[in-house]
Specification:
By secondary structure, this protein is mainly beta. The protein contains 1 helix and 23 strands.
Length: about 280
């Protein structure tokens, strides 16, 4: 599915089904198209990750591309840096799609989840790649996609993953093992740690969402008073962690107040003509 990210306040990078990247910049209240990278990937791009200077892209071709992002002279630019071939790392002749990307800063590393349930850690200092977990080996079932990954913002060794098998797993990346796991009552569409690391959100394909305060996955989770029945594709905390945005069918973004250990519905944003696949603040 197409995806977007916001490397800066006024700039958007959008990915497409044909593997192209588009860069947009807000100017005088209008979103202007400033650059196109045609067929950056061979096939659809499923995931983007970014900060103020870097954009990462991954998709059906199993290639992780790194791009340098910059804003200058009233415009924005995206320049290719380097790539990692995940398919080559596991010795697979068939393409292995990249379904999710997350990063940590200290020590710098990129975490990649694949359609084969594998999770890779790419060390950005040594440029060495390692297979952290194979999903069906004590993790997600062999037929379940890694739908979403989220790294803990302050503990570089903790990662949360959710799969189409309904398994919610907390991983120890240093020791490459599962710390805790919990079977949800429906396939998991999205997971996300809050920016302060004190809670995380889980969105299910059944439409239900949950917010848990704490790191473990087994304790009681908060839920809104009324749950929807439309599939959730993405959940994202606001920068101050007071609000949670939930992208779901049919093309809605629901907003929830999650400050002070609550999960209260606030509003629904409507305007998209197709399902919400990505949200960024």
């Amino acid at each position: 599915m197409p995806t977007i990210c916001f490397p800066s306040k006024n700039c958007v990078v959008a990915a497409t089904q044909n593997g192209s990247l588009y860069v947009f910049k807000m100017s005088s209240g209008t979103l202007m198209h400033v650059k196109t990278i045609e067929k950056a990937h061979k096939g659809p791009i499923f995931e983007l990750w970014c900060n103020e200077s870097t954009v990462l892209s991954g998709g059906k071709d199993g290639i992780l591309h790194r791009w340098r992002f910059s804003v200058k002279l009233g415009s924005a630019d995206l320049q290719y840096l380097k790539s990692s071939d995940i398919r080559a790392e596991i010795g697979c002749a068939d393409p292995v799609a990249i379904k999710s990307i997350s990063c940590r800063e200290n020590p710098p590393a990129i975490i990649v989840g694949t359609s084969n349930n594998q999770v890779f850690e790419i060390n950005e200092i040594s440029n060495q790649n390692s297979l952290v977990v194979i999903g069906h080996a004590g993790g997600h079932s062999a037929k379940a996609l890694n739908q979403s990954l989220s790294l803990h913002p302050s503990n570089p060794h903790l990662m949360l993953s959710g799969g189409a098998d309904g398994n919610l797993i907390l991983w120890d990346l240093m020791h490459k093992k599962c710390l805790e796991q919990r079977m949800m009552d429906a396939p998991i569409g999205a997971v996300h740690f809050s920016n302060n690391g004190e809670c995380f959100a889980v969105g299910l394909k059944s439409g239900h969402i949950f917010v848990h305060h704490g790191t473990g996955v087994k304790a009681e989770m908060l839920a809104p008073e009324k749950q929807r029945s439309h599939a959730v594709h993405v959940v994202k905390f606001a920068p101050n962690d007071h609000f949670l945005a939930v992208g779901r069918d049919p093309n809605w973004i629901d907003m929830y107040d999650v400050a002070g250990k609550q999960c209260t519905f606030v509003a629904t944003l409507k305007g998209h003509a197709s399902p919400i696949t990505e949200i960024d603040w």
